[in-house]
Amino acid sequence: MTYSGRVPNFFVPGVQKAGTTYLCRQIARHPDIFFSKMKEPHFFHQKSFTEAAIDEYLTTHFADARDQRWVGEGSTRYFQSDEAAARIANRFGTDLRFIVAFRQPTEKAVSLYLHNFKRGRLTGRESILQMKAGGVAVVPFSLFAQGCRTYIDAFGRERIHFMRYDDLMADPLGFVNSALSFLNLAPIERTSEKLANAGYNLAWEGEELVAQIPAEGLAPGQVRPRFPRAELEDLHRMFLQDIAETAALSGLDLGHWWDFPTFLNKPSIDPSESLRRGGGRQRAGGKGPGGGNGPGGKGPGRQEARRVAP
User: Which of 139, 167, 244, 298 has its CA 20 to 30 A from that of 257?
Assistant: First the structure.
């Protein structure tokens, strides 16, 4: 290796659709952090990875770093890669820091579907259970426990800061400052309230969750994505064991992730209707989430769900 400049000593390796773009933009403003201009260099997880390319990677993304305490990048495919952690450790050692944000996996799966739809990789007719686009299958890419084991084994639990997308939604400034605190940096006083990658609104139409996209927003051959509630509930059940394992490994309180998300324009977890361990729907007064007709309610009513980033 001929490169003689600064090299990364921290990474935001995942996960996709969990607020990492927002987080990286905010912490990059800190004077003690140099962050790669390209948020996701996508280097260490590639099948085409070679040690010979390391100089180009470092020169391209970190040559401008000076005396900042932390130098980093944020490729979100690293966390669920089979090879990235070992490659990073082999090149830079294990005295590194990692910041990992998680998102309730059922919500993340819908967001991932819409992300690929927006980029023209899906027509909107594909079932979310069988979706595979851009080399990504929705179910394995929404599982986190194995990634936790891989990074903890490679670097040690104390070098990894796990975070929840829920906390970004509740308190963006607190979310950012939690990451800065982990890096032993002073907090910032203000941050942008605008989240990155804002996407489509969703609404329940009877027993389907439907992306609210006008006809002019569809590419040729595309239709508005529709997610049958039964499919989403099946998907949700697939994640329950991984949620339990992820909570144990990360130390995060993920108890509310057992509840089936409502996707409503309010907190994503509605206690009036939940899918618990092995259980079915629970209803409060025969009404759907939000107290009106809709899923779990008496009629095929339409409920506005919150915007989900594609």
Answer: 298
Q: Is the pLDDT of residue 139 over 50?
A: yes
The pTM (predicted TM-score) of the whole model is 0.83
CATH dotted code for 10-119+137-182: 3.40.50.300
- pLDDT reported for residue 141: 87
Nearest-Å Rg of the Cα atoms of the chain is: 20
Helix (H, G, I), strand (E, B) or coil at 124: coil
Structure tokens at 66: 């000076």
Altogether, the residues listed in the chain come to a count of 310
Highest mean pLDDT (candidates 165-169, 176-180, 291-295): 176-180
> Is residue 76 classed as helix, strand or coil in its secondary structure?
coil
Q: Buried (b) or exposed (e) across 158-173, using 16+ Cβ within 10 A?
A: ebbbbbbbbebeeebb
Residue with tokens 């851009």: 134
Cα–Cα distance, 68 to 277 (Å, whole number): 47
Who's near 203: CB < 8 A, 6+ residues apart? 209, 210, 212, 302, 303, 304, 305
How far apart, in whole angstroms, are the C-alpha atoms of residue 136 and residue 114?
Answer: 13
pLDDT digits (tens, 9 = 90+) for 212-232: 999 999 999 999 999 999 999
Residue corresponding to tokens 């996996």:
105
Rounded to whole angstroms, the Cα distance separating 58 from 11 reads 14
C-alpha–C-alpha distance, residues 129 and 285, integer Å: 31
**In 171-216, which ranges are continuous DSSP H helix?**
172-182
Q: What is the mean pLDDT of residues 42-65?
A: 94
User: Rounded distance, CA 201 to CA 226, Å?
Assistant: 12
Return the domain boundaries, the chain: 10-119+137-182, 200-308
51 phi, psi to nearest 5 deg: -60, -30
